[in-house]
Amino acid sequence: MKELRYFCTAGKGMEQFLVQEVISKLSACDVEHIPGKVFFTTSAGLERLRGLKSAERLFLLLKKLPPLPAPWDSGKMTRVIQEKIIGELGDWQQGLSAWLSLQQAAKESRLGPAASRRSRKRKRDEETGKEEEEEEGDGSSPAKKQDLQGSPEETPLPAQVVDSAGSVLPGRADHVSEGPSCPADVISSRKQPLVSFRVCCRCSGILARKFSPQELGRIIGMAIHKRLGWKADLREPDLEVNVHLSDAHCILGFPVFRLPLAHRPYIRTTGLRSTTAWAMASLAAIKQDGCFVLDPMCGVGTILIEAAKEWQNAFFLGIDINESQLKKARENIQFSDLTSRIELMKASVTEIPLPAASVDAVICDIPFGRKFGCKTDVRIMLPAIVKEMERVLRVGGTLVLLLSPQLSAFLGKSFSREPQQNQRPAACGSEEAGEAGRASPRLVDQVTADRVLVSAEGSSSAPMDFPSLVRMGTYRVSLGVTDGLVQEYKKGLCKRGDGNLL
Length: 502
Known about the structure:
Elements: E1 4-9, H1 15-26, E2 29-34, E3 37-42, H2 46-50, E4 57-65, H3 74-86, H4 89-111, H5 113-138, H6 142-145, H7 184-187, E5 196-203, H8 206-210, H9 213-228, E6 231-232, E7 239-245, E8 250-255, H10 274-283, E9 292-295, H11 302-310, E10 315-320, H12 323-335, E11 342-346, E12 359-365, H13 378-392, E13 393-403, H14 405-412, H15 446-457, E14 469-478, E15 483-491
Parallel strand pairs: 5-6, 5-7, 9-10, 9-12, 10-11, 12-13
Antiparallel strand pairs: 1-3, 1-4, 2-3, 4-8, 7-8, 13-15, 14-15
């Protein structure tokens, strides 16, 4: 496949994970990112593109332009859009041809090479016969009929798009389910529009104060219909034109897949956002064969499943005190066909039934928020929770926690030393975000919580210390209505009172 320019949308704070992923998985070049989007060029096939785990949606980049001026009236805005957004027809033709090529490649991967070759040969034969009939009927040249230099109203875009191998690209009758396609009746007739479309427009900044997204989408749609001859269809379009207008840029693209990349068909009951779960697992350094990974508050098992799907040679253990959560986790693990590599156990996070230094990585989403939190204040239990995780983690192992900004600040007070100077760059913002609710409820063992509460209230000693944990990075990520902080730690050797290693 030839090199194409794409962009992915990403949740806030996920851009840095997506940049590393497209480089490592796709060997992408010309990688750049802005808030919420990552742009890259790659020749990778659709299966590798579909394997991006930190992205929300994938688009074929049509145009990336400077911000549009913002005229006060819609008449001037229409002219600006026609000049800037529509521009040269050749750009749209090339973009549509590339998009259709991706749909054909998806079809070939689904049907197999033999069936695809037969389909291409049949379409070429049908097209050759049709062109011969037209030549006999009026003596005109097919090339002349497809001349694109005239006015769009007089000469529509070609009714067929042919890939580099000379094959006609797919119609509605044989399109792939992962994305839209060009209708079969359009393929068979040159007098009809090439494709039906709708515009999905997002805007922010000055433009958003002057025009609604619906108004801008309507203006852009009318310009596309007038200049390109495409037919608007809001209900069942063949193609979606995605437009994002802001004070910093103007971006146009075609969705490559119908479903978002963030949609996980192998997870039945959702918990933590899958992209965030994958990002946490990516920080845990799950590399070598036989790596033992623990999630001591596993909930419905999202982190375990995301990690097990990505790292095939590791073993995973999930622990939770809540039987209803474990039941959902079992269902998810069975649904994802990972029962041979993920084990579940009912136990308290403050009393993990594992030997000391027996785990290579610990990944945990500490519950917080009104809906997702515990009955008891997590701050009271947090030192005991982290202390137990530190105990079972081997030297050199990684601890990855997802916390609220408030819990992160509270935990920071329990550490006896600051992060090392050579830690990886942090990517956190301010820590004043509120603790709005998240998804389903999760509970911590109430008896254990009460015991920790009594111990904490009856002691005047300093906060519990974690001498072997060194913080390596902090990453602020969006969880929907609130933000979370992903904290990454490495377990080293403990220090003596004089500062020397034991």
